[in-house]
Amino acid sequence: MRVTLFIPCFIDSLYPHVAMSIVNVLERLGHTVDFPEEQTCCGQPPFNSGYWDEARAVASRQLSVFKDAEVVVSASGSCGSMFKVFYPELFHGKPQEEEAKALAAKTWEFSEFLVNKLGVRDVGARFEGKATFHDGCHGLRELGTKQAPRELLRAVKGLELVEMSEAETCCGFGGTFAVKYPQISTAMAEVKCNSILDCKADVVISNDSSCLMQIQGWFDRNVGTVKCMHLAEVLARQ
To answer: Do residues 225 and 164 share a domain?
Structure first.
């Protein structure tokens, strides 16, 4: 299969190794990976802030860039949900509505693509350590991504997966929310990170780098004993 990657802004700018890990895993499974360099932001920041006209201007470019893709795989539950859930809403009643629906229908979050599209659970990964998984809000609540990443992690040799009590609790990032309400955002991060500490995990894993940035930031400023890793980084290890 020819897989076209949608790499969100955070990963492109700050965590490019996450994107490279996804390529590593997909190529190991025998697939051809395509990365259209013309892709840009999905438009989620203006969309979430109520600036839908501005969001459509950005999203229109994405519709064009990914129009001919066989399948689109997103490295983020958050930005993936923008393609899959919110583009049809954003373009409802607009000339590009059918293009938005077509893109939504062929877009997959990374872990869901592996488990539910390809039927793969064991990618041949090995990672020594005790880890817990953080459910990003958009991936969990908009895409319904819950079991797929856990099934993949349970197949990783050497990895002990434990559940924290606040696995489904928001980390407090929320994009522009963290900028507008920093005190509330920090308090939410504290709840999340204390839950991670309580389960005595060495590593917290998620399929959203933006959430991991928030969590790692709290740890670095307060405790500094837990490492954050994107799911793809763990699955790329052998």
So the answer is: yes
Q: What is the pLDDT of residues 142-165, one digit of tens each?
A: 999 999 999 999 999 999 999 999
Same domain, 7 and 109: yes
State whether 90 and 130 are in the same domain.
no
Count of other CB atoms within 10 angstroms of residue 172: 23
Looking at the structure of the chain, the number of domains it has is: 2
Per-residue pLDDT for 234 more than 90? yes
5 DSSP β-pair partners: 73
According to DSSP, the residues that pair with 133 across neighbouring strands are: 205
Strand locations in the chain (E): 2-6, 32-34, 71-74, 107-109, 126-133, 157-161, 203-206, 227-230
Give the C-alpha separation, 229 to 133, whole Å: 10
Mean pLDDT of the chain: 96
CA-to-CA distance for 174 and 193, rounded, in angstroms? 16
Decide which of 99, 116, 133 is a domain's last residue: 116
